[in-house]
Write the structure tokens for this entry.
Amino acid sequence: MLTAVVLLWTAGASAQIKEVPFTQVHLNDGFWAPRIEVNRTVSIPSAFRECEKSGRFDNFALAAQNNGNYKTDVKEHQGDFSFDDTDPYKVIEGASYALAVKYDKQLDHYLDSVINLIALAQEPDGYLTTCVTNKCTRLSGWWGTHRWEKINSHELYNSGHLIESAVAHYRATGKKNFLNVAIKNADLVCKTFGPNEGQIHRPGGHPIIEMALCKLYKVTGDKRYLEGAKYFVDETGRCTDGHAPSMYSQDHKPILQQDEIVGHAVRAGYLYSGVADVAALLKVEGGKLKVEGEKYQEALERIWQNMSSKKLFITGGIGSRAQGEGFGPNYELNSHTAYCETCAAIANVYWNYRMFLATGESKYMDVVERALYNNVLSGVSLSGDKFFYDNPLESDGEHDRQRWFGCACCPGNVTRFIASVPGYVYAYGANGAYGAYGNMPTIYVNLYAQGTAKIGNMELEQITQYPWDGKIQIKVVKGGGKFAIKLRLPGWLKASPLGNNLYTYLDKASNYSISVNGQQLYPELHDYITINRKWKKGDVIELNLPMDVRRIVANDNAEDLRGKVALERGPVVFCLEGSDQQDGTVFNKYILNAAAIDAHFEKDLLGGVVVLDGKAKLVEPSGDINDTRFRAIPYSTWNNRKPQQMEVWIAATPMATRQTPPTTLASQAQTFSNRGPIQNDAPETAPVDSWAGGVNDQWEPKRSSDTSKPYHYWWLKRGTQESISYKWKESQQVKNVQVYWLDFDHYDGDFRVPASWVLYYETEDGTWREVEDHEPYTVRKDCYNSVSFKPVKTKGLKIVAKLQKGLSGGVLEWKVNE
Ligand SMILES: [Zn+2]
């Protein structure tokens, strides 16, 4: 059944370290194996059900009918996005991985039926994006009036996911039914886009086509696909066809000139993964192409340095901002408003793993491990059927995993990813590979997880309770020979998790130990322990990594993290969640740096986790400080009980704690924002329909650019008239409001104080009237704009703001006084 690539010792010189595919690695541990099984038995079937329910397959059926291939009752194209096709692709990919590990006849047949439908939806020349084939004008904002018209149409993103999925299905089953669909589509893409006359000169828009074409090249050996991937990488930032440069999609300058990671975080991760693939393949080509590949690798290293030393969350997440789903400036690492999309963490794993394969350096695997055990796993519930889109590092209880999303990129992505985790445990470097040990064939043990692996003629077995325990035994079960085994010494054993000054451990780790067949070795603390010998069946390596609880502090430039510590044990980042604290809250506590912390396994909690217990101090509302205790749980397991308070960065001083403030008029109000721009100055005609968060949480802004607190913003609105309103159940007597306007730079629309604004109150007959005898409506930055007016009794207040020409805006906080 399996057609997985089997590595041979005689592979000879190769520029790159090779992955040991997940099909050759079987985990039977207490940590990953249950997650992978839940993914197979719950997440994958439930994701297929959601695809069915939300009309994802109906869209393919309708396209098939429009191609004259099929009959269906489906009348209309469904869903809100031009990239909805990728959801089924991702789930098929995850299901293929699951199939490769454990054959399931029913699943195999189901996939064939779905693939058959997708094949029928493909246009005769290979084109495949259903909303375009179905001429869905409701979505024409995405795709325009004809195929390939708009750079942000996601048609190439659809192609990329189609190819990735088809390659996975082919590798898992050996069947070509889906691969042939992908090849036909890739042929069209490579014919349509390129540097030659008559072709479209444009990069991918939302990357993934680069990675996907490299995969297709590896499977088929057809050079056109490598050339296509290289073209999309080369074309990025050139704007050859006259489109505007865009930081949002890393299309602001050529990759060779980039040195800071910016824009949409998933796009960045996918793009640089694709660049890494292209760079690696070019290096194998030799000559001029090899030099080009090396240049790309250097650019990636520069961008990576910026990401890992200034923009990486301690959970391995990337992307600090909701607006534009992407990066903010250096050191913007706000916990509460952190975006850290699940897909971005997965993209970060893809990119870092490729960087490792290209160099053999363990620092990239440190990022992979950090993202894997924390941000990626947080993306899915322990039950396997609820998902996070964004993964903040702090919550007031407003976050709760959902079964599915209108924009459903994350559930499908985490579903396909979890199934592939065993593939990250080992790697193999042939003679002369970058980072391999001299002339020795080299096995990399990058992650520790109990299970077996077939690598070349060898079979290895790992026995460990990692990540709960640091004792690891690696046995040679079969085969042997002269080669090097490299065991990764994780970043969490060192002075700083990432080898830079973004995060630092406050304490020193205990010593680790290693022996081979009972004989102690004394290697230096390098990135890898290399053991080079003639291995034979029965040899045993014993590695003992100290699982101390370690306190982490952040670089002082990360303003939101000042006075706080994060707790880590092994690769697992911990958090406080309300349920585990005596008084159900977390923000009013601090942990002294000297306080002892006990770690122990709780088998009945959250499916069995190590928890951290210790003494803490509780700041009372009066300011008194009393003794209390705290319990921390793995961050990846938060929100598996109920929505409640949670924090990763815990106060280390009374100053850094936060009290739950007493209720106010504002905090008791329901908040609303208008969905669309108001066409005239009569706000009573505007619909009041969407919830607007953050403005009444009584969290004092530090300045108008303080995005560390929740706030309301009018994304993609420029120069329009927008409103926000408060509604009370009972009439309130009010005579003053204080408004703190949002004002900060963003690549995806600048947010500025408005040009002007007006305050309205709701009269008894439900109409809106401007307040009388009011002070001037000011628009000052970095302070509250206070306006007193003739007192009114009302059930509602509304701010109508006219945004500055060409600019957006928002409100950080809005107080109401009687
Ligand atoms: Zn996503």
Notes: Residues 341-343, 389, 409-410, 413 surround zinc ion (CB under 6 Å).
